[in-house]
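Q: What would this chain look like folded?
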Amino acid sequence: MSEKSGSRKRRILKNVLSSVLVLGAVGGGVAYTAVTVDGADRTAPTSAWADPSATATAEDPAAAGLLRGRASTPMSKLLLPVPEGYALGADIEGYGNDDEVPAKQAAALLKQSGKGFYGKKRRAYEKEVDRLGIQGMAMRAYAKEDSTLQAEVLILRMKDKKTVREFFELRKEMSEFLELRKGPKIKEYAKNSACYLGPEPAKPENDDDDVRTPELQDMTCSAYDGEVMVTVRAFGAPPFDQKAVAGLVEKQLRHIESPGEYV
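A: My prediction, written as structure tokens:
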């Protein structure tokens, strides 16, 4: 690839990434948005994940095999099986709590993020999305059994390792540009992962505010391995367990290295 075409591809990718970050078009505003919650209730954990074990029990034969998540397709096998101390979480907006989107639909979702482009720019944008070679998208929600944390993991597979790496670097640049607060580092994967914290919860302005349920805190991590881009978004009531989220990211990356093996 020439320097000129490489620069053009990077510019288009930045447009793709900027649109996705701003508009939150992929995954119903879950994994590819900036780390603020668009229109979501940031006050209390919802009843949907107050009791994560309520939707599946070991006594239910049909559900027993799904307690750790599906592993029936190449994409679902890449998702981290529900680890000890967690259960499947609440449904991800627009999807279930353990879902998959085929390549064509995943690419269409990404193209929707270019709705700010028109005419030739829109056609060029969609053409570049096609060149990303999206192979599919899968997502899974996790909830800690003590109901203190909900995490949503989304993986996006592309055909080109270089493109995945560039996508990660551009997203990291965008997070730095937005001056997002840095989260914990994942030591073993420091070069191919980055975590950022959402806005600090507002402090109570008067005594009446002290009795309110505290605002949720959130953190978003991006990472990659080979052709797979990983986004982990988590939120919970304070004190927010940043290390637990970083631990999930680390386990997810280890699992990608050895798909199909429970960790």
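The beta strands are 86-88, 98-102, 134-144, 150-158, 181-182, 193-197, 217-225, 228-236.
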